[in-house]
Amino acid sequence: MLSAVLKEHQARQQGRKEQQELKRKEAIKASNDLTQALVDHLNVGVAQAYLNQKRLDTEAKHLHHNATTFAKQTQQWFLLVQNFSSALKEIGDVENWAKSIEGDMRLVSSSVEYAYKGVFEDE
What we know:
single chain, mainly alpha, 0% strand, BLOC1S1, Biogenesis of lysosome-related organelles complex 1 subunit 1
């Protein structure tokens, strides 16, 4: 009788151990599933951030290229305007020179005319 109770106790204890092992395996599987779901959820955000960063890098390179091109064009325009300004100054200088020469020529012309009148009036 005592040995039957012992065997029954051991059988129940073995059954409980098997149930505990089964529940432990289920808990480990559920924990792994939860961990995997959390990692997947975080990876989606990380992947989106990575794609956004790549897009930003591409746009930054494009912007840098455009800014460099704009700076070169601005420099060319600046040189063109500077050359144009220089040409205008030269035209202004030539115009002043021409006015000065014209004034001198009028003076010479009036002097010659005055002298011519003086020579022919004396005769």
